[in-house]
Design brief:
With 108 residues, the chain is an alpha/beta fold. The chain is built from 4 helices and 7 strands; from the N terminus they run H-E-H-E-E-H-E-H-E-E-E.
Length: 108
């Protein structure tokens, strides 16, 4: 409802026209084709009468493998480690605690 109130929500067919004009346009997209896109996002979009574009990762449909990003998410959710630091990649520490997974703190 926030997007609907403050922006012109456009669909994929409207993209060319929106790029030629002015205004506050937003296009809602979902990547990877997860089931919750249909079970959670679709009813909310339908309730607000909003369109969205869903991208499905077809390469994983015929092969019984888990995408690498889901493997990492599973490892973070199930690790007994409380936090970790990646000095070669960044100067941030990352918490694996459920309430703090999205937050990071600088630790340089």
């Amino acid at each position: 409802s926030l997007l609907k109130r403050d922006y012109d929500v456009i669909g994929l067919p409207d993209l060319d026209a929106a790029l030629q004009g002015r205004g506050r346009c937003v296009m809602i997209t979902f990547d990877d084709g997860y089931r919750d896109n249909y079970s959670h996002a679709f009813p909310a979009l339908k309730q607000e009468n909003l369109s969205a574009t869903f991208f499905v990762t077809t390469g994983f449909l015929d092969r019984p493998i888990v995408p690498w990003w889901d493997e990492i998410a599973w490892m973070v959710r199930h690790t007994p480690v409380h936090s970790f630091h990646l000095p070669k990649w960044s100067c941030e520490s990352y918490s694996t605690a459920p309430a703090q997974r999205e937050a990071t703190s600088v630790n340089c």
